[in-house]
Amino acid sequence: MDKHCNPLQIAESLSETWSPKVISQLDNHYIKVAKLQGSFVWHEHADQDELFFILKGSLLMEYEDKKVELQAGDLHVVPKGTMHNPIAAEECLVMLIEDRGTAHTGDTVSSASRSIEEQLGSFVSKNR
Ligand code: NI
Residue 105 — pLDDT band, cuts 50, 70, 90? Predict the structure, then answer.
């Protein structure tokens, strides 16, 4: 593979928060980056695990029964069927690995929800 991309650089270039962008694909999964700041919305993905890799900053993953603190370099998988709410007290850059069928906010529809078309943007064609 002669093409590559730099997830951190792409994440740093994003202007909108909580709006993941697909940067590559791996079989049935999308690799995405996102810029996070503030609190998101409580949601769950009934049938898909969701991988978070922290590129920069820190993130608090809230669950109904616990909180998981993540720092740059940490990897965390949100188990399928588990209510969660990511909170970034300050700007946080993340890389996500998700099944193609994963909805941004699961079954919870809100103004924060981004469709896969919105997430695909222009990065995939550029980086593959
Ligand atoms: Ni989620």
Answer: confident
Tell how far the Cα of 128 is from the centroid of ligand 1, in angstroms: 25
- Count of domains in the chain? 1
Domain extent at residue 37: 7-127
Return d(Cα 88, Cα 61) in angstroms, integer: 9
pLDDT per residue over 72-95, tens digit each? 999 999 999 999 999 999 999 999
pLDDT value at 35 more than 90: yes
Centre of ligand 1 to C-alpha 126, Å, is 26
Question: What's the CA-to-centroid distance between 9 and ligand 1, angstroms?
Answer: 23
Using the mean position of ligand 1's atoms as its centre, give its distance from the Cα of residue 108 in Å: 10
Q: 122 CA to middle of ligand 1, Å?
A: 22
- For the chain, list the strands marked E by DSSP: 21-26, 29-39, 50-56, 58-63, 67-71, 75-78, 84-99
CATH number, position 57: 2.60.120.10
